[in-house]
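If I may wish for something, please sit down with the protein I am sending here and say whether tokens and residues agree:
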Amino acid sequence: MLLHRPLYCSSNDYYDCVRAAPRLRANLEPLFEATRVDVVVAGHVHQYERTAPVRNGTVRPAGTAPVYVVVGNAGDVEGLTKKFEPAPAWARSRSLALGWAPAGVRRRSRVSRPNDATP
């Protein structure tokens, strides 16, 4: 799943990580659970961050909840995020360095097209 704003982030970006992310989680996590989303990639916040599998702020066993990745570390004219808050239990990897993230898919998993007869 690709999104613009992250559902999980732990930087000092008060508006996005403290105010907006919880509202996004309340609205989107039930949908992600119902459709068995494995990975959610977002940007907007100018940092890199990856979570453990997490749902409702609680770390879950692998394969039972999405892993959330923020790939906003290419930055922009505003610059990169300045600092992280203390790491939450769900945080697995965090970086404030300028960078980029290559992506690939290893296998096809749980792809379905409900009510769609076309391939």
